[in-house]
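A protein record pairs a chain with a discrete description of its three-dimensional fold. The following entry can be read in just this way:
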Amino acid sequence: MKKRNWTWVILVGIVLLLAYLQFGRDVRVISSMLMSSDQYYEQKLTIVANKLFILDKDKFAEEMIERCMDNDFREMKFSYDLLGSPDKIEITVYLNERDRKCAHQFFVIEYDSICRLWK
């Protein structure tokens, strides 16, 4: 009976750990680079998603573009008061910190505000 109880405790612990690794951590901005000229403003970000997997890349990309426009990242605040919103946003996404250190990028989000396109 004790062996069965320990099995359940370990199983629940593993499930809780996996749930935390997938849903318990927020996206982290690693770096940003801004390029601007007279009438053009481009923003490049590198983020770590802190996820085990991302099933819907399109939904994740929309959320990241919206967070950029809303200036809703905890680690970094962008100054949109002088130049306004960027004309182009490029976000390099890594699933986790280990992938970033090994330079295994998951995907790249490109958003063009003039055409309202992202890929």
